[in-house]
Structure formats: structure tokens, C-alpha cells
User: Fold these one by one.
Assistant:
Number 1:
Amino acid sequence: EADIYQTPRYLVIGTGKKITLECSQTMGHDKMYWYQQDPGMELHLIHYSYGVNSTEKGDLSSESTVSRIRTEHFPLTLESARPSHTSQYLCASSKNAGGELFFGEGSRLTVL
Amino acid sequence: AQRVTQPEKLLSVFKGAPVELKCNYSYSGSPELFWYVQYSRQRLQLLLRHISRESIKGFTADLNKGETSFHLKKPFAQEEDSAMYYCALSGLNTNAGKSTFGDGTTLTVKP
């Protein structure tokens, strides 16, 4: 079944650790996005990609980085996690730029 | 720059009452407007988009370009409508088609 998957769903780590949040989609979409959902539930775009080897920073500055080596895979990496990175991270994909977004279930990161 | 404003962070109504979730936007061009919903312990999902002009789960939303608004309405709220609602805008002409979200409105429908 076509879907978008995020792992891990929950992660608690210590300060300074490197983490990678995985996002994969089987929908055949070229466009993929990472949103940060703050404790107050606001959604902010932090990264997006319109195809393989194409990544751009979003509207909210983030210390995370992303890569897009394969169409279906869009991982997000934090080289050295800090408590300020504690948040929910949502991955999404779309068929067309500006079209409907399909979201994963989210990865809730807590940095102690 | 494109911007979406949802003035109400929290909205509470009784079952059977009408409900309106407000959304205003700013965008220089022809926008595409969406309403997304996140039910408790579920993923964020599309509720409706203005271009389809559909009624989904009894909800409708009309794009008013004069007032730059896209309010979400339902004549008789149900308890299962309790959720977080986000208004979103995307524009093909600017911002590379990225979607901008409002801050969200938490709707609680009381029995």
C-alpha cells in the first residue's frame, strides 16, 4: 500500500549525540518535505526536496541537514543534538509542487 | 511573502452548534488554499482544498479573495470533529510551491 513512513516514532537521547530521522515513501512522489511541529503545535518548513540530489532549506532555520540520494528516501540528520532540538518532526510528500501534502506519523525527538 | 493567520488558538462549541474556524492569508498571486486536520493520535491529513469545492465530513470552506479569507464552516458540530485544524496556503508563482501553515486551531466539541 502506498504510504509514507517515519522511524523512529519516538527517540530520547542525550546532548551531543548524532541522530538520523528516517523518512520513506512508496507513493512515487518527487517532492518531499520536513516540517517541525513545535510544542504549541505550529508547523514550520525546515527542508524540502523536489527530486534526487536536490535539497533546499525551508522557512525556519534549522541546524539539521538532509539528503536525497533516492527518490523514496529523505533522511534528516542532526550531527550534535541539543535540548533546543526537542520537537516533533513531520515528513511529507506531494505529487506536485503546491499540491496536497501526505504526512507521515511523525518522529518525536527529546534531547536531554 | 506568503502568510497564513488563524486568529483562534482554541475554539470550543457544543455538539449540534455551528462552528467556524477562521483563516486569513496574504499572498501576491493566485493561491491554493487547504484545510488539514489532525485527530488525536493520528497523522496530519488533508480535509479539503478550495479548488475541489467539496464538502468533506460536513465541512465547507469558501475562498474569498476580496477578504483574503478561507474560513472553515460546519452547520452542526459533532464530538468526533474535535481535532487540531490547520489552514495552509501554497503558491506556484512564488515560494517554489511550498506550503505555509497557520498556527492551528484546536477545536473541542462538547457533548
Note: The mean pLDDT of chain A is 93.
Number 2:
Amino acid sequence: GQNIDQPTEMTATEGAIVQINCTYQTSGFNGLFWYQQHAGEAPTFLSYNVLDGLEEKGRFSSFLSRSKGYSYLLLKELQMKDSASYLCAALDSNYQLIWGAGTKLIIKP
Amino acid sequence: ETGVTQTPRHLVMGMTNKKSLKCEQHLGHNAMYWYKQSAKKPLELMFVYNFKEQTENNSVPSRFSPECPNSSHLFLHLHTLQPEDSALYLCASSQDVAGSYEQYFGPGTRLTVT
């Protein structure tokens, strides 16, 4: 079956760095997305990786290893507004998104 | 402003009621989606429309009935729901269904079935 695993909850300190991991098993693979969802709001797109390596976008970076079925989202210089859920989703061979349950990130002062 | 709007934002309905959720996208996209989001669970894809045609129906009970009159509007008609249907219902759109296009989400309708 198809599956996405990511931690349920993580806690980090303002100003620090946090890495949110995601492992996936899909029928074929056409890329991996990360979305951010603040409580009570819509998910919003953060990143898309289809090739191995690190993609940097400001304070956020996303990494992909296709051979390991593994991705991570790296958040630097954490701010209180980064408190949110982070959703990992893999695109399978039919271009259908397989979603993880999300990682709730709590930032403490 | 995400370009995708949903109404109502909150809905409380009894099991015998009939109601409809509405979604509108102002992005010129061709694909629209309905998702169900329950606490601590992955997003569940319910229906997919591409150019107004339904391309996906993920074994959704018939008490949920989608309607897509044009590429900009999507409805979800609800009738005789169960308490376990209480969830956040999200609408999304993307440029197309095939390809690595990001999806743009609406704010959702928080549905409570009593």
C-alpha cells in the first residue's frame, strides 16, 4: 500500500533550527510536496522536490532522497508564527497526492 | 487571499438535513478537488474534477454528492449524514490534474453533524 510517515508533534525554541522528517512508500513517484497549515486555516504550498538534493527558499529548505524514500523540511531562525502543522505529500505514478497526517510544530519562546 | 473561497465556513446540521457546500476559485485553474480533513489523520481525497468532468471518486458514500457546473465552481451536496462525517471539508484547485502542479486550498467548511 501507499504510505507517508511523519512525526505527530515536535517542539522547538524560537530562533533555533528544526528538521521535520517524512518517509514515503508510493506506487511510482513524481515528486514530494510540503505544505504549511496554521490552525483553522487552509494549507499553503511551501516546496516541491522531484530531484535528489536540497532546495533552499529563505528560512525554509527541503531535502529529498529518492533512493531512501525520504524527505525533510528544515526551518531556520524559528519564529513564533512558524507554529503550525506541516504536511508532507508524495505524488504517485498516477499524479495522485498521498498525504501524511501532518506534523504539529510548537514553537516556545 | 488564496484565490479559493468556500462557504459556509461553519455548518451544523442534523442527520436528516440536506445542505450544500460551495467552492469558487478565481485562479483560472482546470482542476478542482474536495478533501475531508479529520483530526490527526491524512487528508482524504473525495472527488476530483478536471474541466468540469469527474475523474476521481474515492469510494465516497452516496450521501455526499458533488456537482461541478463549470471550472470555477464546485459544490458538495450533503444529505442524511452521520456523526462521523463531522470534519473540515477543504476545496482545492490546481492548473491540471496531471503533473506536479501545486494545489491551492480554500479555508474550509467546519462541519458538525448532530
Note: The radius of gyration of chain B is 13 Å.
Number 3:
Amino acid sequence: DIQMTQSPSTLSASVGDRVTITCRASQSISDWLAWYQQKPGKAPKLLVYKASSLEGAVPSRFSGSGSGTEFTLTISSLQPDDFATYYCQQYNTYPWTFGQGTKVDI
Amino acid sequence: EVQLLESGGGLVQPGGSLRLSCADSGFSISSSHAMAWVRQAPGKGLEWVSVISGNGAGTYYADSVKGRFTLSRDNYKSMLYMEMNSLRAEDTAIYYCAKCITVFGMVAGMDVWGLGTSVTVSS
């Protein structure tokens, strides 16, 4: 199975900060990677698919990049609504696998 | 607005069975879209469970549920089902159904999610 490792596991930031979350795959997944945001008690929300394609209605402060084994999710200016847990997921090979999550808090 | 609604969760004893359903109030559960299940154990991260192709011909499962869970769909009724047998304590989780999006014919993400249904496996 492809292992997805996110770093950091927890990130403390302030409103207005630029935030970068990294996701590394144990083998190449081309660009078959998605990013999700999850708030407590809520279902995940798709932010980015195909490594860098922003899902409709997702604010432009979110961006994704990378290919192969290393990927990043960047929030250019953190907003109060962005405090949440973020997950990457690979779709290159079954079984699909998620990273362990990165919690962004104040 | 497209919405998915899961049902069928509950408390079950180890070794028991449950059938989860996912209803679609829009057009997600049609032959155009693959559908998936993702679960989240209490206080833990997300775990992909299974996916079924748009026409129902193809299914894939996580190793942790292979041979115990069976996915099916009825596109005419806009319904998705997951039969869960030989349940274990480690299957305790919130189960979400989700609609898949595709790029070049391959699933690239899950863009519509249900609210989730809780499954607890305990004696």
C-alpha cells in the first residue's frame, strides 16, 4: 500500500499567516492527489484535486502543488474559517490512502 | 443542491451485520459517477473503505474490510448500499458516503459527502 505522510501533524498559526502543509507519498502517485478540509463534527470538504486543481467555490487563497511523491497545500493568508484539520489522499493506486491529517489551530 | 444522506448505522455486537444505505436527493447516484465510502473512527483520521463504479460493475475495498463488506448500488432508485458482515470493534466509526469526480476517466476526488452515520460494534 502507498503510505501518505503529512507534516506537520499540528500547526499553530495566526490569522493572516501563510501556511504550508506537506504530504509525501511512499512511491510516485503522479498527480493523483486530493486535499480535504474537515471541521469537528462535519464531513470532509474537497479543496484540491489532481494535485493543483481548485475545487469550485474554494477560495483562491488555497492552492496545491507537487507531483510524484511530494505535494503541498498552501493557504496564502489564513482566515478564521480555515482553522480545521487537513488531509491529503492519493488516488493513483488501490487501496486509496489518506495522510494522518494536519490540524491547524490558533 | 446535491445532498447525500446515510442511514442504517447503529449498535451491533461483534460478529453481527449491518446494512448502510446512502440516498441521493440530487443526481449524484447515477451511472455517471463512482461512489465511495470513507470512515472515521472516534478521534482518528479518515480511512477509505470502498468504491463502486458508476455502472456497479467494479468494486474495490480496503484490505481491512475485504471479504466482509459488499458494496452495491441501484441507480434507478438513486441508492448506494454497503452490507457489513462479521463486524469487529475496530469497525466502530462514522461512515460517510461520497460522490467521486473523475478526470480522464480516473477518480480524482470526492466532491459531495453525506452527513455520516455512526456504527458502534460492542458487546
Note: The mean pLDDT of chain A is 97.
Number 4:
Amino acid sequence: DAGITQSPRHKVTETGTPVTLRCHQTENHRYMYWYRQDPGHGLRLIHYSYGVKDTDKGEVSDGYSVSRSKTEDFLLTLESATSSQTSVYFCATFNYGYTFGSGTRLTVV
Amino acid sequence: GNSVTQMEGPVTLSEEAFLTINCTYTATGYPSLFWYVQYPGEGLQLLLKATKADDKGSNKGFEATYRKETTSFHLEKGSVQVSDSAVYFCALSDDQGGSEKLVFGKGTKLTVNP
């Protein structure tokens, strides 16, 4: 969707390295979310934000942290990447409905 | 907690066949229900939604009715096309504290052959 940009679109990283994924929105929406998509699991919520500096954990938050210093940006950090974090990561915003970004495919080798 | 169970895939149909993808849910309160579609290499797009019991959501020939008595929201289409090949996700809104978190089913991959 034109209102949400995820970067990078693809990344390969080594086990144990830190990784930060970025979600940028242009619609000034209050709510932002990070989901991961894995075969056989659908999408699972990692963290979400309900305002600048206001974040909370989702269903699968272990090993992830987030930050939101500006309304438009929501960062997802893997402090020390593991192979189990190989996944496709989706950012979403909510304002009378969800809008999803195009995803970041992360491979941890 | 809230959960969504949807039909295991993959589903393979011929063009113009009838499609049903089953979805049932467990929830406290009165969630809104959604079907999302994901085309290859893309993010999720809202296909249709229903916000209260007996509502019917519809879009692009797809329909689903919110059935509170059976806690179901089955997706149907009378005549599928090759372009409908995608992964379909059933979801409910887990609106605890107003954060509007979505809970997804595992997804059903649909392939439509010419």
C-alpha cells in the first residue's frame, strides 16, 4: 500500500547479529503493528504501538523489541538474530481498518 | 483467549467451480470478523468484513455471513477464476482496550486451474 513502506524488503543476516526493520507510514495513524508470517501459523502479532513511545507486547514478542519515537516510524529490532526468526515480517496500521505493508523477508543463516 | 480455526489447505479447484473455505472462531464478547487475501509476493488485502451477527460481507463475488450461533464465518464464491488463486486468511478483531489487534487463522492456499 502506498501509505506504508517497509525497509528493507529482503535481508539475509548471520546468527547473533542485530537487525532492525523499519516501517514508515504517511497517514498519521495512531496504531501500528508488527506481525510475522510463517507457514502453518498464519500471522502472529509481535508488538504493537498505540502512540509515540507507547508500545506493548503481542503473542510472540520474545527476542524482539520495538521503538516508536515519531508517529510515522515503527522500528522492530532483533537484538541477536536466531534461525527461528527467519520469517516474513509485516507492518500494519489501523484507522477504521487495517492496512498492511508489502513485507520484509528476513533470512537468518 | 480468542482464536480462529480455518480449513486446512491447500485447495485446488477448476475454473468456475464453487468455493467454500470454512472458518470458525472462539471469542469473548462480540468481535468483528474479516477475510483477507494475499496474492503471491504481496501483503494482505482486506477482502470483506462483518461487524455483527447476521451481517453479510461481500466483495468481488465473495461472500461470508457472521453466524453467532455456530461461531462461523465461512467464505464462499459461486464461480472461481484463475485470478482468485491466493492465500486466504480468516481473522477476528481482538479489541481489548481499544487496540484493535487482529487474530488470524493459519491461512488456506487456493489454486484455481484453467
Note: The first strand of chain A starts at residue 4 and ends at 7.
